[in-house]
From TrEMBL:
This is Uncharacterized protein. The keyword Transmembrane helix applies. It comes from Cellulomonas persica. The chain crosses the membrane at residues 9-27, 33-51, 58-76, 96-115. Residues 121-159 are annotated as: Disordered.
């Protein structure tokens, strides 16, 4: 469990601000060049979330996710002049892209949150012992087997 130190709260605050920036940037960029703007925005979200989780742990990760979702939610509202940054509906060229942006950002939060803890663990591990190759077991010669001059002997005299 992560300790609640002042440094952790500062990291969470920085991560929250980073989440606001990434959410705002992704909301603006996701409609840029369909579908590449959307893919770039989702890639930025995932990279930032993984970076924050590796840098600060769970508490800053939650701060980053909160800032991201807040920025997307606020910028998805209709502006004072009636303009919308995240259009969803029939009156737009790509009615699916706004929903994919919102759902994809949430999916990126889930994926980064469910990533195994060992991916973010920097504690050194002891070196592994090298594997020794297994030698095939050689059977001991059987006394009842062929002899150099018996019925099963090889013609060259080798046993």
């Amino acid at each position: 469990m992560q300790s609640l130190t002042p440094q952790t709260f500062v990291r969470a605050l920085v991560a929250f601000v980073l989440g606001l920036v990434v959410g705002a940037l992704g909301t603006v960029v996701h409609r840029g060049l369909v579908p590449w703007g959307l893919l770039a925005a989702l890639g930025l979200v995932l990279a930032a979330l993984v970076m924050v989780r590796a840098w600060g742990g769970w508490i800053p990760f939650v701060g980053m996710a909160g800032g991201l979702i807040l920025a997307i939610q606020v910028l998805s509202q209709t502006g004072p002049g009636g303009d919308v940054l995240v259009p969803v509906g029939d009156n737009v060229n790509t009615p699916w892209i706004g929903g994919v942006w919102i759902g994809g950002a949430i999916l990126m939060v889930v994926l980064a949150g469910l990533a195994p803890r060992r991916w973010f663990d920097d504690t050194p591990r002891p070196p592994r012992e090298p594997r020794r190759p297994r030698r095939p077991e050689v059977a001991a010669p059987d006394a009842s087997g062929p002899t150099a001059d018996g019925p099963g002997a090889r013609p060259d005299g080798l046993a």
